[in-house]
């Protein structure tokens, strides 16, 4: 009788364990008497709590510890959920605007878009980085901004056909194996989307804040919202939104046309509860200066377009100060 009872208890444990692990009982419910339900629930709850704790510990072990970049005080990421919204142009002019607003500040620029690096073209930089005595890459410099990009390490038209692990390794080298010197701000031009690179950077580096760039167009705003929510999930402060290509003004009659819609990013900022950092117009001057590698903030500093970028830079600095309080 004792053996029978012990065997029954063992079957009950196997039944309960199988339910916890795969969600499907190994034995049918007809084998479980009513007077055992109380014990089964207690065992199941305990098993679930233990399983959840093991999962939490496993995840904690798997996440890398954030390590600051040597010599860099604050890291600002410029991101967008969708490509083609002017993110890289905004990142470049933001970096230049930060320095233009306060000449005492040192600013660096990292192009984290491994597959489609734009910083070499926008900053008019070519060549391979030199190595220091410590085997660190020296950033290429223009307009007083030290820059690093995958575009400096490959041919200009060479496609980068890499899997995720190789991209992660490249990002690690661009971040850690560069002699950045002493920087007040490092602006990182992120690739579009919410993939491996974004997670790798936000999990490995302490980020002071994220700037989300979007046009007012509905389709762009959908992805911009995803980008903002991703940063929230990884505990990166969203400093605010930049509404790019907000309005087109005819150079002949000065009539204004909202080609991509009116105030879409402003409405999204209100929905997300974040600040609207500024509006950047759709202007020929921005496109032409960018294509020449002479960003508008330095080539046309007195233009309304340059002033718009400097206002965004000032808003970013103010928001960073608010988060430090």
UniProtKB/TrEMBL annotation:
Obligatory cofactor(s): [4Fe-4S] cluster
GO terms, molecular function: 4 iron, 4 sulfur cluster binding; ATP binding; ATP-dependent FeS chaperone activity; metal ion binding
Gene Ontology cellular component annotations, sorted alphabetically: mitochondrial matrix
The UniProt record lists the keyword Repressor: no
Record localization: Mitochondrion
PROSITE patterns: MRP
Keywords assigned by UniProt, alphabetized: 4Fe-4S, ATP-binding, Iron, Iron-sulfur, Metal-binding, Mitochondrion, Nucleotide-binding, Transit peptide
Annotated Gene3D superfamilies: P-loop containing nucleotide triphosphate hydrolases
InterPro entries for the chain: Mrp-like_CS, Mrp/NBP35_ATP-bd, NUBPL-like, P-loop_NTPase, YlxH/NBP35
BP term (GO), one: mitochondrial respiratory chain complex I assembly
PANTHER family: IRON-SULFUR PROTEIN NUBPL
Family statement drawn from the similarity comment of this UniProt entry: Belongs to the Mrp/NBP35 ATP-binding proteins family.
The protein's role, per its UniProt record: Iron-sulfur cluster transfer protein involved in the assembly of the mitochondrial membrane respiratory chain NADH dehydrogenase (Complex I). May deliver one or more Fe-S clusters to complex I subunits.
Protein name: Iron-sulfur cluster transfer protein NUBPL
Organism: Cyprinus carpio carpio
The organism's taxonomic lineage, starting at the top: Eukaryota, Metazoa, Chordata, Craniata, Vertebrata
